[in-house]
C-alpha cells in the first residue's frame, strides 16, 4: 500500500491526488493521509503542496463534476475526521472512473467512501448553515463589528464570503477561537484570514461601543416576547438550536445583576 | 431575566415589547424563496433556503424582526388581542424607529430582515400608506437590501399595494379563517372578498412581473419570494378536510408559495370562541403542516388524504402513514424498480431519500443496509418495501398489524393493551383527542421529510 502524507489543506489534498494519478497508483491500494496514521507494510510518500498542481486538479473537478459537487468536496475537507482526505480521494477516483457527470458525484451513496465524504460534507454544511444564522456580531468602539465562535468544522473560509457579500461597507472581524484564526474584512475591500496569536490574546481588551449593550438588550427582550407562552417547548427549542452555540449568542446571555 | 428599562414616557424598549407581543401570533417567520447577492454597496443579501437566526422558547424559528407597526385598530375581530374593544396599552412605531431596529439587528446578524404587519390605523389606505413609507425609507434612505415580508391590508387601494410590492420580497394577506362563514362570525369588519381581492392582485402582479423580467432583466422585482397566507385552526368548526381543500385551492388558484396554520390561542376568553381546555390544538396544526407538504411535494391531493366520511386526520398516524395503511394494495414497493412517484408514497421515504434511491440504483443494486445511508427511516418504511423482491424480515401486510407496530413505541398506553383494534380506535378520532407532537415529529415537519 502507498500512503501519500500531505499537508492539512485543500491544496495539500489536491496535490496528493495529482501525484497519485501522475505516479499511476493502484487507487484501490493507495491512501491519502492528513494526519499521523500508522499503516503496516505501507510505503509513505510525502507530498509537497504545489499550487499549480492543485489548480489543475480543481479545474478537472469543476469540469467533470460541476461547481456544487466541488463545493461539497471542499466542505468535506473542513471536517476534523481523520479519514476526510481519503474519502475525498476515493470519491474523486470513483466519480472519474464512472464518468458520473456534473451534479452526480455523490450518487453512489451505497459506496462506503462516497457515503463518508457525503456525510462529512453534509455535517459541515449543516454547521455552516447554522452559523450563518447563529453567529453574533458585537459593535466595538469605532463601529467595527466583531464575532467569536468555535465551530467543529474549519468553516471560517466559508463564512467570510457570506458576510463580506452581506456587509460590504462594514469593517468586521470573526475569530475562530479554537483555531486562533481571524477573518478580517476591511470595508469595501476583500477579506482575508489572519493567524495572529497576539491579536487573539489582546482580544479581551476589545471595548464595545456605547450603544452596543442597549441593542443587545432590545434583541433579548424581543426574543423573550416573541415566544407564545401557551406553546412553550424547550425541548424543541434545544433540538433546533443546540446548546453549544448558545454561549456566543446574546439572547442567551446572563447578565450580571450589577449591570 | 431582567431587562434594562427605558427612561422617559414610552421608550423604544417598551414599544418593542408591546408591538412584538402583538405580532407573535402571526406564524410565518421564514425568509426563504429569494436568492439575492449583495450589490457591493447596500447592506444585505438573501439566501434561497432562508436562515433561522434563533429559536424562541416555544421552539419556533426567529428569522425576521416580526413586529406590528401599530397595535391600534379600528376593527374588532373576536380572536384578536389588538381588537378595538380590548383595553390594553397601545403603541405605534415611527418609520425611523423601525428602520433603526432593522438595520442595527441585521448588522449584528440577529435577523434576516423585517416582517412588518399592522393593526388598522384610521382606515386601510392610511395604514397601507404608512407601511409603504416605512419600506421606502428602509430600502432608500437606509439602503437595506435584506429580506422584507409585509402584510397587504385588506381594503387598501390597489395602487398602494402594488407600489409596496416592489419593495418587498414577500407579501401576505391573512385568510384568517378557512371559510367565509367563520370570517363573518369572528371578524365582522372583514369580508372574504376584501381578502381574496388583494390576494388575486398580488398574484397577477407576480405574473406580470415575471413577463416583464423575461423582457428586461433589470425590471424592478415584485414580491419575488412569492405570496403566503395563514389560517387560524380551531376557532371555528371547519373540518380538517375543509381546511385542506381550501389550502389546495389556494395553491392551485392563487399560486401561493406557502399556507401557514396557526393553532388557535384563546387570548380574549370571548364567549363566542371555544374554550380549548387542553391548550391550543397543536397536534391538529401539526397534521395540517404534514398534509401540506404532501400536497406540495409528494404528489398527493386533498381528497386522497381525507373525505366527507373521514373529515379529520388520524391522531395516531401521520397523514402519509394513514394513507398507506388504507391503500395496502399499492405495497410492497420494490426499491430497485419503483418509479419516483411511488417511492414518494412510502412512509419513511422523504423527497430527498427518494431522489437518492433513484440516483444510487443506477450503479448498484440496493440492499436494506444501504437504505439507511440514503436517509430512509427504516422503522417506518420496513412494512412497505422490498429489496430485490424480499422484505427485510417477515411482516404481515395487514392494517391492524402495521398500525400496531407503527404506533407501538409512541402510544402504547392509549392503544393496544385492551384488545381494542385500530379500526375501533379511529372511531374516536374526531379531533377531540388532545395530543401534542413530539420534538422528533416537529423536526420532520420542519424539514418536510415524511
Ligand atoms: S384587523 Fe382584526 S385581526 Fe387585524 S389587528 Fe385589527 S382586530 Fe386584529
Helix-strand blueprint:
The complex is a heterodimer of chains A (259) and B (450).
Chain A: E1 2-5, H1 10-22, E2 30-33, E3 43-46, H2 51-76, H3 84-98, H4 112-134, E4 138-139, E5 145-149, H5 156-166, E6 172-176, E7 181-185, E8 192-195, H6 197-201, H7 212-226, H8 234-240, H9 243-246
Parallel strand pairs in A: 1-2, 1-3, 5-6
Antiparallel strand pairs in A: 4-5, 6-7, 7-8
Chain B: H1 12-21, E1 54-55, E2 61-62, E3 64-68, H2 95-107, E4 113-117, H3 124-139, E5 147-151, H4 158-165, E6 170-172, H5 180-186, H6 192-215, E7 227-233, H7 240-254, E8 258-263, H8 282-297, H9 302-305, H10 319-326, E9 333-334, H11 340-343, H12 351-360, H13 368-373, H14 378-381, E10 385-386, H15 399-411, H16 422-426, H17 439-447
Parallel strand pairs in B: 3-4, 4-5, 5-6, 6-7, 7-8, 9-10
Antiparallel strand pairs in B: 1-2
Helix pairs in contact in B: 2-3, 3-4, 4-6, 7-8
The structure holds iron/sulfur cluster (SF4).
